[in-house]
Design brief:
The protein is an alpha/beta fold and 253 residues long. It has a single domain, classed as Metal-dependent hydrolases (TIM Barrel). Helix content is 42%, strand content 17%. It contains 11 helices and 8 strands. An 8-stranded parallel beta sheet has the order 1-2-3-4-5-6-7-8. Helix 7 links the parallel strand 5 and strand 6. The longest helix has 17 residues. It is globular.
Amino acid sequence: MQNFVICDATIGLPRLRAGGIEPTVADLLSEMGRLRVRKAIVRHRLCLDVGPYHGNQALMEEIEGQPDLLAAWAVTPDGRPPDFSPVSLVKAMLDDGVKAAWLAPKAHGFPPQPWCAGALYGALEEAAMPLLVAHDDLTGDDIDAIGRAFPRLRLILLECPRLGRNRNLYPLLERHENLFLCVAPPFSVHCGLRDLCRRFGAHRWVLGSGYPEAEGGAAIAGLMYAGLSDEDAAAIAHGNIERLLEEVRHDDR
């Protein structure tokens, strides 16, 4: 298989540089070539270290002219200046061709519960835009509250750790059909992916590489050696995320 789409790449230098890592566009493209990754959803580190909307602007400038790099904007419940409207924010994303959002509630200082971020979730749900959130940024109660209030919101958990037959995630997956997991290097559960597919089908898992912190080949190897059918492996490798992005709606009314 040579058709992979990863959903969790981050470019931009951290405040404290370590280990010679240079997560630039050029380096990401080189890594994609090495792993035979066709496309990548990309975020920018400046969204965490400086500010979400400054980072989004830097992201768009740096990936300009790179059709294989798909932007995910950091979003906050209050929207962005000058109007501070989540609805206007999502419209601006769609106008710029952005089809994925990224929530970082701990870094940006807000509770992810619907009482705070509900207007944002509603705007994303209306557009059918996938929302990326790190596993450790949400509690099980957060996920359940979001899923109950906004059942059509496509919520993708990133950086899911090695937790075995997870007593937290499995009940949430049973309750919320639009909860998706990004299978990346931290998810190195023995027979874990096969069990997820057996219990819930293959349509709710997408692929990550952990770029730049992790060795992306680990996730690809985990998928390829999971003992799945070719159809299920292809769905996780690229088909599921391609479907989600294709279903994003742009209402011009």
